[in-house]
């Protein structure tokens, strides 16, 4: 009778979505992780990558989660263990934004587990306070110095990024069949952009000349015949040599890079479009921004802009002060004439 009662209790718990204790004890971090990867694969998320062709899928934000929570039973992943994970990550990186992306992935795992009926509730996961969005950009006069320090294979993609504001993933995906030297355009096909919408990028003289000098017998435009791979070390070394970045030593002895990022070229490209007089609507079509609020965050005001604004104010004031003086002189002459 006891066995039958226990069976009915278990069946009743499953019927209302409650996870029996015996099943919960078997549930591990890897089970939650696998569900997240399946969801990413089902929805075609671009952040899902593969270690090799046909290899195991992975998400970059899971690397440190995998290392810390490996083989953890789900009930043991509680606010205290999550805080321990955060403290350990803070010793490795000063970036709260990076840690938050990892915590968000963990939150999504638990959210899926609750929706799937594997858990009744998810543990509380507090995100860290993040600094304001980056406002890095590269002035037009600084660009030649950076270009000179870059290895040959990076100069062309960096030029395209700086003058068009394209994302790195979009640049990596460009094939020669998408480049039209006659129309001076680069056509980004559906699926190669972040929001999956096709887009046409106009080539200015600098981009047109840069691409026309490359080997056009390959499939991909950049990467010496193959799709452009990772270049973080080369990028940071070039920025340091150009005086646009530096390495700082953390408390644990690790070296942390601070300075210009490749994504700052996108900000610079947006800023250059606006400074050149391109309308916001057209510039958004070129850069691929969906909302004006995000686009305007990229249209960064520099000290040069502020100095130019002050100079315009000086010119405006001098013009109107001169007009006021002429009016007063005219009124004075009229009064003098009237007396005579």
Walk me through the structure.
The chain is mainly alpha-helical and 340 residues long. It has 3 domains: 2-115, no CATH class; 143-298, hpI Integrase, Chain A (Orthogonal Bundle); 313-340. Helix content is 54%, strand content 8%. It contains 15 helices and 7 strands. It has a 3-stranded antiparallel sheet with strand order 3-4-5. A hairpin with a 4-residue loop joins strand 3 and strand 4. Helix 3 crosses helix 6 (96-115) and helix 8 crosses helix 12 (263-275). It is globular. Residues 6-12 have low confidence and may be disordered.
Detail the topology: elements first, then pairings:
Elements: H1 2-15, H2 21-26, H3 29-43, E1 48-50, E2 57-59, H4 63-69, H5 79-92, H6 96-115, H7 143-149, H8 152-164, H9 168-173, E3 179-180, E4 185-188, E5 199-202, H10 205-212, H11 232-241, E6 245-249, E7 255-259, H12 263-275, H13 280-287, H14 292-298, H15 303-339
Antiparallel strand pairs: 1-2, 3-4, 4-5, 6-7
Quick gist of this model?
The chain has 340 residues and is mainly alpha-helical. The chain contains 15 helices and seven strands.
Using the alpha-carbon principal axes, give the shape: globular
What characterizes the major β-sheet?
A: 3 strands, antiparallel
Strand residue percentage? 5-15%
CATH topology of the largest domain: hpI Integrase, Chain A
Quick one: CATH class of the largest domain? Mainly Alpha
Structural class category: mainly alpha
Number of domains: 3
The CATH superfamily of the largest domain bears the name: Intergrase catalytic core
Q: Can you tell me the CATH architecture of the largest domain?
A: Orthogonal Bundle
Query: Termini distance?
Result: 127 Å
If helices are DSSP runs of H or I spanning 4 or more residues, what is the number of helices? 15
Question: Which stretches are poorly predicted, pLDDT < 50 over at least 5 residues?
Answer: 6-12
């Amino acid at each position: 009778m006891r066995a039958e009662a226990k069976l009915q209790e278990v069946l009743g718990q499953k019927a209302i979505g409650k996870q029996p204790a015996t099943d919960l004890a078997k549930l591990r971090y890897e089970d939650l992780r696998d569900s997240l990867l399946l969801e990413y694969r089902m929805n075609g998320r671009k952040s899902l990558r593969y270690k090799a062709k046909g290899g195991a899928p992975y998400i970059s934000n899971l690397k440190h989660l995998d290392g810390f929570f490996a083989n953890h039973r789900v009930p043991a992943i509680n606010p205290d263990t999550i805080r321990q994970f955060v403290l350990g990550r803070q010793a490795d990186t000063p970036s709260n934004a990076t840690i938050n992306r990892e915590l968000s992935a963990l939150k999504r795992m638990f959210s899926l587990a609750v929706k799937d009926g594997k858990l009744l509730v998810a543990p509380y996961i507090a995100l860290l306070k993040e600094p304001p969005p980056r406002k890095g950009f590269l002035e037009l006069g600084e660009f030649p110095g950076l270009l000179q320090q870059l290895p040959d294979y990076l100069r062309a993609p960096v030029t395209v990024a700086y003058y068009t504001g394209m994302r790195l993933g979009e640049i990596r995906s460009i094939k020669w069949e998408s480049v039209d030297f006659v129309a001076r355009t680069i056509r980004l096909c559906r699926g190669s952009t972040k929001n999956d919408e096709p887009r046409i990028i106009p080539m200015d003289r600098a981009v047109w000349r840069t691409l026309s000098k490359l080997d056009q017998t390959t499939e991909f435009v950049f990467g010496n015949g193959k799709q452009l791979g990772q270049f973080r070390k080369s990028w940071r070394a070039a920025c340091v040599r150009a005086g646009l970045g530096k390495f700082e030593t953390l408390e644990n002895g690790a070296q942390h890079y601070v300075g210009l990022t490749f994504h700052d070229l996108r900000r610079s490209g947006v800023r250059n479009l606006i400074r050149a007089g391109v309308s916001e609507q057209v510039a958004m079509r070129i850069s691929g921004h969906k909302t004006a609020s995000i686009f305007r965050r990229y249209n960064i005001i520099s000290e040069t802009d502020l100095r130019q604004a002050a100079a315009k104010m000086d010119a405006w004031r001098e013009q109107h002060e001169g007009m006021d003086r002429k009016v007063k002189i005219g009124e004075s002459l009229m009064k003098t004439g009237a007396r005579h």
